[in-house]
Write a structure and sequence with these properties.
With 79 residues, the protein is an alpha+beta fold. The protein is built from two helices and five strands.
């Protein structure tokens, strides 16, 4: 099941400053991915679920006029 986060809640907590930047939640980094109109809510959920089945992790964030899927990125480590 995909949880949908509200952009206003993230902004209020100082986690989301603009839609083009990276987002960090609980030590995990995310970058903006595809966006979906409000009419495509189920498509956005399906996208995130399909990605999870392929080993990728997305957060789905609801903005006032659209949904955006944010992909988890793992920082490269220097060896």
């Amino acid at each position: 099941m995909v949880s949908i986060l509200q952009s206003k809640d993230l902004e209020a907590r100082g986690l989301l400053n603009d839609q083009s930047s990276n987002l960090e939640i609980q030590g995990k980094c995310f970058k903006p991915g595809p966006s979906f109109t409000k009419a495509l809510r189920q498509t956005a959920i399906d996208f995130c679920e399909d990605a999870r089945s392929q080993g990728r992790q997305y957060l789905l964030i609801e903005f006032p006029t659209y949904f955006m899927a944010w992909r988890r990125i793992r920082p490269k480590t220097d060896d």
